[in-house]
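Posting this for the archive.
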Amino acid sequence: MRARSSRVMAVGIASLSAALVVTSLGSAVAASAASTVPVVSPAADDTGDASTKDSNERRPRGGSATEAGVLPWLTEAGQDIKGYRASAYQGQYFDQRFEQYRLCVVQRESGGNYDEASGSFVGAYQMGPYNSPSRVVGKLQAEMEAEYGSAAAKELNKLKSQPLYRWNRFWQDAAFWTIFNRGAGWRQWSSEWGANWNCDHRANAESGWPSSSRYNYTPIEKSATSDASASTGKSPTADTKKSLRGTRHAAAERRFGSTQHEVGTPEYSQWLAKKFIAAEYGWKYREFRALNKMWFKESNWRYDVVNWQGPWYGLGQVNGPYIKAEGFSISSYRASPYVQIKVGADYIENRYGSPKNAWKFWKNNGWY
């Protein structure tokens, strides 16, 4: 609901002994005899210290030396579509000086979700309709076929008919670097093209990405308990029920019925928001469509997102004073998608009258 700052924070530089030596397009080996290590310093937590608490976070890391010689889009790193990694593409357009800029774009645009498909902007880099699959393939073709021959030609032919969010990490990273073109294409990720934030596209200007203390940091939400329940069809265990405390999911179910979506996922919050605004305000499809686009820009529909520069919290990125004025503590607000939707919808109704009006303002100002 606010304009975002583009300030950056400094973090420590990774040891030179941990550097990777690029040997060919898409493959690398460790400079030392040690096993593969990150090529980017671990992100700092909210206190500025190297985080040891977020065991489920994906830290940037390089490919494995054991995968040398494998087509880069078939490696484990190349196919991974969740979280933050060092660039899977290391071709002619790759430039290490802009790697922190790239990670900044990935975090702010999609929270590290390469399969993000909300609206007309898709994938880790949120590429719009102008960058159609066939157009991007055309840009990649010469380099890839020269390097990998018929294997690349065959793969690129498949990608022409696939939306970008279905491309794996290697191909999306390759698309970014080729379009960015050593800085020439930076405007596609700037306010000039509709972004409400700016990563600094100058060489070596960014640092500290990804970071849990900055906007749109997305963990990899995995729960062994909930996964097991989904796969077996059994009732939620006591641990699952405990994990739902504070979410007000029971109240949501009583009011709107059940859903197949797991509590806390973007799909769950979208389902709940659509139900809530229709019941509470009579806002139907077009209003939800506007809300869906706006809150995707604000939080990627991740209820646990916090921008500590405000701070602003949750789905609608609402600030603390407004949350408290609505009668909720920060902790109870952060725990519940239901509460966040209630507070966010009330803010929109009080200030703009409807999501469509709020979205119109957002498009002109980059905040609401």
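The chain has two domains: 16-193, 225-365. The radius of gyration is 21 Å.
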